[in-house]
Amino acid sequence: MGLSACGSNPSSGNSGSTLVSISVTPSVISLPKGSQQQLAATGRFNDGSARDLTASVFWTSTNPAVATITAAGLLSSVAPGTASIKAVSDNITGSASLTVGAAALVSLSVTPANPLIAKGQTQQFTATGTFTDGSAQDLTNSATWTSSSDAVATISAAGLATSVEQGSATIQAASGTIKSSATLTVGPPVLASIVVTPADSSILPGATKQLTATGNFSDGGIQDLTSTAVWASSSPSEATVSASGLVTGVNFGSATISATSGAITGQTTVFISSLPPGLGWNALPNTTSLAGSGTCPANQFNGDPYNFASNCLNVIRAWGGAVADTNANRLLIWGGGHNNYYGNEIYALNLSANPITLMRVKDPTTPTNFANSGNCIDGLPPGSPDFAPNSRESYAGMAFLPNVNRMYITGGSLACLLGQGSRDTWTIALGNLSNSTLWQHEDPSITGPTPGSIGSPYGHIADYDANSGLVFLNDTAALYTYSYQTNTYSQLTSPQGFVTSIYLSGAIDPMRKLFVMVGNCGAGSCGPGDGVFAADISDPTMTTQQDWTAATMADPVCAEFLAGGVNPINSANPGIAYDSVAHNFVGWPNRGNSVYVMTPDTVNKRLTCQKRTFANGPPNSSHASNQPNTSNGTFGRFRYFPALDVFVVVNDWNIPPHILRLR
């Protein structure tokens, strides 16, 4: 009996007592995944004594996928779930219940640990949590962020620190009771960018232009760096630049002028122009007119029965428009239509060329609709409606899209006997424009009526808005926007919410966010839909038609412009362009030496006008049946080119283009 009571028998207590129960502590266990806990087994004997049996019992888990336990009672959680943990000695069993939850956060790490930024800059911090199962998780967006000094740097809920003043701040991230921090040091402001002005300007060979380099610093400060920057020209054979930023034109062409300070560089393009110098009007060579250039297609071009050369004058005379390709400094002319002209070729007046040229950059599509003229079709050739647009009287329904470098057209009177109106939209890429460039027949989506279906398909007015990247379009009944990126029209007003006549021209003022349309107040009288109308396009969804006619006509200079100028020949569809230097509209009333500088007054809802007159303006056109002193309108053939700081007007097919300098 004495031998059986030895300590090697766990089921026996003192002096031969017998084990009657085992208790496991803790008896109810809750652990996160990936953690451990030491359990204890205590035996109770029939003599009332107790003994630690942790090392001698047999430990088991009923669900090893949830938790495992060693022979010494060390419990390890494996995965969320439940299990029963048992301690067995002979036939006596004790147990504990276990619940394993998700892994718990044990530490946080904030990175970067000790960043240095300049005043005005930002620093993104990241909070990474380490969990009981050894996993890591990005807690940046869920942690609570604080800064020890908002006077030095503030911190957003997403961990983005914004420097305020030089100094240091402790940036802390907390998740529950777990915290970690980093030290942010804010140093002096640094140069962030350099802006060289004027942007994309022009000079003549031998002339000079002073450039300015303005430094923008990280804290919002600005500084004139003109005298300290390092200046360079990409092409000294076209233009040189001095150490103080003075550019000298050498030869026709262009050069990129850069200003560098440290690692920061700003630049601008300077065009060395062959355009005539001097304030006011200057005629370009006769070889730049449509008649004088010899660029019209020959009669029966490419086997088509149409007499192109004999009718080419109507590209311009038959209510034809144009766009200013300001990326390439060229005026793109496209028109014809009705029974006036059946060619759909594109002409380019190249203002940066030396010498300046007018070229046919894309030939007419053949066969034309001439042999099929009894049918009014939108696309060419007949039977292939998506290849190219049929020729049309283009009016002002054209726009240049600089963001995608494309030309946009819509509406117009189609080349056919009846001259039916188009409601389709076409675009064409302008980079390396040639005969191999394909037109794109857009099929825009829209909720509601298509432009031109309630309003007239004739006399559309379109212009591109640099702020929104959208084309704004008036179809004489409603206002729309067109997005090339989504190929979508959006109707901004009700179907009869922007009623105008077909005799207006328009342009967008991107600074004031206005779309202004003007024209056709002959003899001082404006009919329905004629005069001056404006749309506030700062929020297209809230746009309404504003009638500025009466208030503008009260200004006698404006009234003179709207009537067609001095000795008018036609007040409809005048030339109008936005001057991005003076931030005004400039109008040309289809004739004469005078232009009218028009300033929008958004408070009183009117234009105020100043007349400027220069000698040697464009001669009068002969649009109507070749009769002198007749005009069908200027439309988009009066345009402004910011890089050259000149206005250009093409008044007739046999009159050389004229440029106008106001500065």
Structure report:
The chain is mainly beta. 4% of the residues lie in helices and 43% in strands. It has five helices and 58 strands. A four-stranded mixed β-sheet has the order 2-10-9-6, with no helix packed on it. A four-stranded mixed β-sheet has the order 12-20-19-16, with no helix packed on it. A four-stranded mixed β-sheet has the order 22-30-29-26, with no helix packed on it. A hairpin with a 5-residue loop joins strand 53 and strand 54. The longest helix is centred in the C-terminal third of the chain and has 7 residues, at 556-562.
Largest sheet: 4 strands, mixed
Give the DSSP E fraction (strand runs of 2 or more residues). Answer: 35-45%
How many helices? The count is: 5
Q: Which class do the helix and strand fractions yield?
A: mainly beta
**Total E-strand runs:** 58
Oligomer status: single chain
Report how far the terminal alpha carbons are from each other: 124 Å
Roughly what is the average pLDDT, rounded to an integer? 95
Helix content: under 10%
**Radius of gyration from the CA trace?**
40 Å
Globular, elongated, flat, extended or rod-shaped: what is the shape?
Answer: elongated
Q: Enumerate the spans where pLDDT stays under 50 for 5 or more consecutive residues.
A: 1-8
Please list the strands of the largest sheet in the order they lie side by side. 2-10-9-6
